[in-house]
Design goal:
23 helices, five-stranded parallel sheet, five-stranded mixed sheet, single chain, 12% strand, alpha/beta, Signal recognition particle alu RNA binding heterodimer, srp9/1, 50% helix
């Protein structure tokens, strides 16, 4: 992908300068001719001593005498050489006696020399400027030229990796399978008029394998892979980013079916106008260009755009609109089983000692991403090599784990056994409460693997799209949100900061019930406060109070009432089913992720409970 141009340009320049030097030494050799006046020339002519004489059209006279002495002189501009000589007393015969009389029509070499002398510095300055520009544009050492010529750099490679190289992440693979099918045989889909998503957003923490996954999709389908990274555009000149995006898509369309991958799209795709100090023009133009390109796809454009980000929350909403990146594929941090599988991929082909126990290693590395695990295996291999071993043993792996865990950025992500238990109870609390409430959304998955800022998560999805929500539903939702904290209190008699996000959500929901939906009896059927909203951004800007202090107190009391009641319900459910709470929490500590079926089995009492 990297252009070899700049190095070559330097070589060319050197050759160029060298040849000019040679040139001079051949044709413009310094002549040690003596400068004489025209009358002295005339005297030499009259004396018949001139052996040969040359005259250039710009009036330079060179002559050599029979003794071999060389002279140079200058002719008067508007008078011929012969006339001048005659004026100075020479006769035509004497002139004709000159052995060799040459008139050099354009005195080519001399003129060339002058031209070159004037041009070379200009050329040098020009080249220098071009180099400076390149340097400035690329920031790193990637070469870059303006617009068109850059296009050559986007040669889509055909990745060799397939889904087999991406361990775990089965859900994501399933979602991307459709894309693979389409790219393999687009006509099958287009013939039926099927619309395939243009853009998919891969969302996941750094190192979870987004880039790997994108390449694997191309590899599975056997199509070219064109990629750029959002961060490349940040320090560019205005206009360059947009033109590169244009080039990229041009190339891609010419090589379709194929994949365009925009890595780190958040670098260009931040909300426009957000942040202090105004917007970054370049970023904005680049982003706009991406949108323009995607909007320009017609039904038979067989290009699928994948983008990766670890910050979907800061993306410009325009990117997420239908017809753009309207599908999200979440790539989670791997749970224990996932880590086991990833370890399996990375030890492939490495000589392992018989004592290496992959499941144990998976257990010891909570919070590790795929990239961390790759790193771990590599460290272990290096350690073994340093010890002159022929194979990697468990002790090297163990040592590598310790090293990686001790690393600074690691420590914050790693959870202790105690914390793990707290998070497990917290999530089990959410899940169990929700499973017991008639109106709550079904629970699909519970996990204690950190996702974003949260310690764990309980994934519940509504069964169908509901536009009308009932008060009972809201109340159940509140209880579910508070189930996490309630479980902590029941099990440990103490509470942690882990529930802060739940509390914020619960407070917001309760406030909306009171002030927007008129669901508080003491306040009656009305709304409170006028909100100004930027509708299409979905962000509240300011709230205007249209009620008195007393009403404000009432509102606060109602909100507290709703939340207290919900907490009470959550406590009751969990206390009544303490055995199930323990069972779910223990299973979470053990497996880190529980799917819906296992959960239901516990709740329905199909699983024998240890503590029962
Ligand atoms: P991201 O783009 O999400 O930051 P990468 O795709 O660059 O992560 O992953 C970095 C490396 O980590 C990959 O090259 C691969 O070796 C390893 N890796 C990450 N996830 C997995 C996985 N699920 N299976 C196997 N290896 C993985
Ligand atoms: Mg990446
Ligand atoms: Zn919670």
């Amino acid at each position: 992908m990297r252009s070899a141009l700049p190095k070559n340009a330097f070589v060319y320049l050197l050759i160029f300068v060298a040849s000019i030097a040679l040139f001079y030494s051949f044709f413009a050799a310094p002549d040690n001719a003596e400068d004489i006046s025209l009358s002295q020339v005339a005297r030499l002519v009259k004396e018949g001593r001139v052996a040969d004489l040359s005259l250039t059209n710009d009036g330079i006279i060179r002559l050599t005498t029979f003794e071999g002495k060389r002279y140079i002189s200058r002719k008067e501009p508007n008078l011929g050489f012969s006339e001048t000589m005659i004026n100075l007393g020479a006769t035509p015969e004497q002139i004709a006696n000159i052995d060799e009389f040459k008139v050099l029509r354009p005195s080519m070499w001399e003129n060339w020399g002058i031209v070159l002398i004037q041009i070379v510095p200009l050329l040098l300055i020009g080249l220098f400027l071009v180099f400076m520009l390149r340097q400035a544009q690329s920031g790193n050492n990637q070469a870059l030229s303006f617009g068109k010529s850059r296009a050559r750099m986007f040669t889509g490679d055909r990745p060799a990796s397939t889904f087999d190289d991406v361990a775990g992440a089965d859900e994501a693979k399933q979602e991307l399978q459709e894309v693979v099918e389409f790219l393999k045989d687009p006509e099958r889909f287009t013939a039926l008029g099927a619309r395939i998503p243009k853009g998919l957003l891969l969302v996941g923490a750094p190192g979870t394998g987004k880039t790997l996954m994108a390449r694997a999709v191309a590899g599975e389908a056997g199509v070219p892979f064109f990629s750029i990274s959002g961060s490349e555009f940040v320090e560019m000149f205005v206009g360059v980013g947009a033109s590169r995006v244009r080039d990229l898509f041009d190339q891609a369309k010419r090589n379709s079916p194929c994949i365009v991958f925009v890595d780190e799209i958040d670098a260009v795709g931040r909300q426009r106008g957000a942040g202090l100090g105004g917007s970054h023009d370049e970023r904005e133009q680049t982003l706009n260009q991406i949108l323009v390109e995607m909007d320009g796809f017609d039904t038979d454009t067989k290009v699928i755009v994948l983008a990766a980000t670890n910050r979907p929350d800061i993306l410009d909403p325009a990117l997420l609109r239908p017809g753009r990146f309207d599908r999200r594929v979440i790539i989670d941090r791997p749970d224990r089983r996932g880590r086991e599988a990833i370890l399996g991929v990375h030890v492939r082909g490495k000589p392992l000692g018989p004592d290496v126990d992959i499941p144990t290693l998976a257990k010891q590395t909570p919070g590790f991403t795929g990239a961390d695990i790759e790193n771990l295996v590599n460290e272990a291999a290096i350690l073994a090599a340093r010890r002159n071993k022929k194979m990697i043993n468990m002790e090297e792996f163990q040592e590598a784990v310790e090293r990686l865990i001790a690393g600074p950025e690691r420590r914050s992500r790693l959870i202790s056994e105690k914390e793990k238990e707290i998070i497990a109870y917290h999530e089990a609390g959410h899940a169990l409460v929700m499973l017991n409430l008639e109106n709550a959304d079904p629970v699909h998955k519970v996990s204690i693997v950190a996702r974003g800022m949260m310690g764990g998560y309980t994934l519940s999805l509504p069964e169908d799209d509901q536009t009308l929500q009932s008060k009972a539903k809201f109340e159940d939702e509140l209880a579910g949100l508070l189930g996490g904290r309630a479980a902590e209190e029941i099990r440990f008699g103490d509470i942690t900061t882990g529930a802060s996000n739940d509390l914020r959500q619960a407070t917001r929901l309760a406030r909306a019930m009171v002030t927007e939906y008129g669901m508080a009896e003491s306040l009656g059927q009305r709304t409170f406060g006028q909100k100004e909203e930027l509708i299409f951004l979905g962000r509240e800007i300011a709230e205007q109070r249209d009620y008195s202090e007393e009403v404000a107190t009432l509102i606060d009391r109602e909100i507290k009432g709703l939340i207290d009641k919900a907490y009470e319900r959550a406590m009751q459910i969990l206390q009544a089913q303490r055995d199930k709470l323990d069972a779910i929490a223990n299973l979470l500590v053990e497996k880190e992720t529980i799917e819906n079926e296992e959960l239901l089995a516990i709740v329905k009492g199909e699983v024998k409970l240890a503590s029962a």
